[in-house]
Design brief:
- The structure is a single chain.
- This protein is an alpha/beta fold.
- It folds into 2 domains: 162 residues, 3-Layer(aba) Sandwich (D-Maltodextrin-Binding Protein, domain 2); 129 residues, D-Maltodextrin-Binding Protein, domain 2.
- 39% of the residues lie in helices and 18% in strands.
- The strands form 2 sheets. Strands 1, 2, 3, 5, 6, 7, 8, 10 and 11 form a 9-stranded mixed beta sheet that branches. A two-stranded parallel ribbon has the order 4-9.
- α9 links the parallel β5 and β6.
- The radius of gyration is 20 Å and the shape is globular.
Length: 308
């Protein structure tokens, strides 16, 4: 594949929309902002290669800051070039397909949906190496008096058994519960960690296309004290934080890097560096470094919780 033979004209409308959103709110991790000399001294084992030699990387929206930090550190490129390298960005489940087809060398991605796993023969041709941990988190308007829900209560809200905030210690208001589309990464975590194959009740739901769309919907909903939604912690806390929203504790534990790292906040799951049989040698070098002790320190410096 010709890694740098890319123009804005060949990417899909979906990709342009996603990247416009990403590049508009993604903060530069400290690891990416450091000088080349500082990076070389701090991470002497980091592989180095030219921008042209760098693998085609894809993956999940919440991993974009890590992708940008990594290419800047490894190649010495500037912020604009790091952004350009993601012009073919496709998001969680499409990235697994791109990797298997050889259109991407490596992906930094959250869990694939069961539908994606099935279509890719259970990911048999792919190798998943845990790089970090993130959490499924639940968001409400900051004015909502409810600060904590149990896993059972969240389950019952999304199956329709609980429909009013007064049933969980809140005001006498109907719950407007937002969810993501089935093919999204956060919806995959919702099913994996909480809902399984159970039908999510549609009467009080609104299905939102993107993670930024779900957060915006919670902020903008006319009766925002009613609204409930979910995201992944890194995205909602570091990439698209909204002061008008708050994170709910689940079973008495609030999500943060420490509780995700320790497992005290239970709705956690790894995200992965994934390679395939068509992955380049440089992609394998990056994977091996990211899962090393030094690479895990880099992941932490980028603001994530390292897997190891």
């Amino acid at each position: 594949m010709e890694k740098r033979a890319i123009t804005h004209g060949i990417c899909s409308t979906f990709t342009v929309i996603i990247l416009t959103a990403v590049l508009g709110f993604t903060a530069i991790p400290a690891a990416a902002a450091a000088s080349g000399t500082d990076i070389a001294e701090k991470y002497p084992g980091m592989p180095h290669m030219s921008y042209e030699e760098y693998p085609e990387v894809d993956g999940s929206l919440a991993c974009v800051p890590l992708m940008e930090a990594l290419i800047r550190a490894v190649t010495g490129c500037d912020e604009a070039m790091a952004e350009e390298s993601l012009i073919r960005f496709s998001n969680t489940n499409p990235s697994y397909h791109r990797l298997q087809e050889g259109d991407a060398d490596l992906i930094l991605s959250y869990e694939a949906s069961e539908e994606t796993k099935s279509s890719l023969n259970g990911l048999a041709d792919l190798e998943l190496a845990p790089v970090g941990k993130d959490a499924l988190v639940f968001l409400v308007n900051a004015a909502n008096p409810v600060d904590n829900l149990t896993k059972d209560q969240i389950h019952d809200i999304y199956t329709g058994s609980i429909r009013n905030w007064k049933e969980v210690g809140g005001e006498d208001l109907p719950i407007k519960a937002f969810q993501r589309r089935e093919a999204s990464g956060s919806q995959t975590l919702m099913r994996l960690l909480l809902m399984g194959d159970e039908e999510i009740h549609e009467k009080q739901m609104a299905v939102i296309e993107g993670m930024e769309g779900l957060v915006d919907a919670l902020v903008e909903y006319d009766n925002s004290a009613n609204a409930l939604g979910y995201s992944v912690f890194y995205y909602a806390s570091s990439m698209y934080h909204q002061d008008s929203l708050k994170f709910l504790a689940v079973d008495g534990t609030a999500p943060d890097n420490d509780t995700i790292r320790s497992g005290a906040y239970e709705l956690t799951n790894p995200f992965y560096c994934v390679t395939g049989r068509k992955s380049s040698e440089n992609a394998l070098l990056l994977r091996d470094w990211l899962i090393s002790e030094e690479g895990q320190s880099f992941v932490e410096e980028c603001g994530y919780v390292a897997a190891g």
